[in-house]
Specification:
single chain; 336 residues; three-stranded mixed β-sheet; 13 helices; disordered C terminus
């Protein structure tokens, strides 16, 4: 059956909303000059509790890229594995500027240019860019002043449309279990233990682009989660060269107490999962069975892609579900 006429996420609904509608009356936006030292930049991300910031090039008076946690992971991963040699990562982080690191980085995407959007463009256009370009953050830039007004993300768009979802007459598919409609990842879900090495997590983040790894105990029950955002604490603590650290030691670097692992069941309905992610303001839930064994992961971008582009998903197992990868949406350096 077709989408219910009252369903708020049909293209017409998102096309009626502008990116400008999401910009708050007041707020802070962190911007880094390209000549800022790498360590100071990542330390500032931690201090302000943010995951990314635009890069400003004063020579051309324009924003030329985004600095993200993925960039820090790339520094750690690339310089642990080049030609089998252990390079001095601390030297790069302590002494190189963002621009200098961009030049030597293998994954700087120097020819891509910054992806941004006009504040008067529609949310549907923004959603398409986020999903099709596989980025997680989309700067809203005023074309007249050149100022960055806001950073659009999957979470911010979901937060904006959530009231419309709850208040609308829901389409029947909202009551269908998430695994039945193919929302989430249920195969080859990476798991680590507290005594696993940091290097294993770094390789996993760098090669698979996943955003978090469930931590399980000896009975393979989920007890914690190690996310990309946790990696950046290595910058503030100066733990650059020790890839032999255990996950337990890494998690002890967190500034807060142990993070509660939020879970759901594969049999939970789509609307219940949406409510859980919205209420907790998290990026993902670990899908578990009745014994707390990991079954899969369902991320914010999994939900986002389904809600915005429902037709991309198959209703039968014989049809192929598009590969979804939340962390691939993290925008890396993109200098013009």
């Amino acid at each position: 059956s077709g989408i219910n006429a009252e369903w708020p996420l049909r293209p017409g609904f998102l096309q009626s909303k502008k990116c400008y509608d999401l910009i708050p009356n007041s707020g802070k936006l962190i911007v880094f000059d390209k000549n800022l030292l790498v360590r100071k930049a990542f330390t500032a991300l931690i201090a302000h509790g943010t995951r990314a910031a635009p890069i400003w090039d004063s020579s051309c008076q324009a924003y030329t890229g985004m600095l993200t946690i993925t960039d820090f992971i790339n520094i750690l991963h690339q310089n642990q594995n080049k030609e089998g040699k252990h390079l001095n990562i601390a030297n790069i982080i302590e002494n190189k500027t963002i621009e200098e690191w961009k030049v030597i980085s293998e994954k700087s995407n120097v020819n891509k240019g910054l992806i941004s959007i006009d504040p008067m463009e529609t949310l549907f256009t923004a959603a398409k860019i986020l999903l099709e370009k596989k980025i997680h953050r989309l700067p809203v830039i005023d074309p007249r002043s050149g100022n960055t007004l806001y950073i659009l993300t999957h979470k911010r768009i979901l937060n904006h449309i959530y009231p419309y979802i709850i208040e609308s007459k829901l389409d029947p598919f909202f009551s269908i279990p998430i695994q039945t409609i193919g929302v989430g990842t249920y195969e080859n879900v990476k798991q680590l233990r507290y005594d696993s090495k940091l290097l294993q997590a770094m390789e996993c983040f760098a090669k698979t682009k996943i955003s978090a790894i469930p931590i399980v105990d000896d009975e393979l029950k989920v007890v914690d989660i190690y996310a990309r955002f946790d990696v950046i604490t290595l910058a503030s603590r100066g733990k650059y060269n020790d890839m032999d650290m255990t996950i337990r030691e890494c998690l002890q670097l967190r500034s807060t107490q142990k993070v509660e692992v939020l879970t759901c069941r594969a049999t939970d309905s789509l609307i219940d999962v949406i409510k859980s992610i919205y209420s907790a303001q998290v990026h993902r839930l670990v899908v578990v069975d009745d014994t707390k064994h990991v079954v899969g992961l369902v991320s914010l971008s999994d939900l986002f892609r389904f809600l915005v582009f429902r037709s991309h998903y198959s209703k039968t197992k014989s049809e192929e579900k598009p590969e979804i990868d939340e962390e691939s949406h993290f925008q890396q350096f993109e200098f013009g």
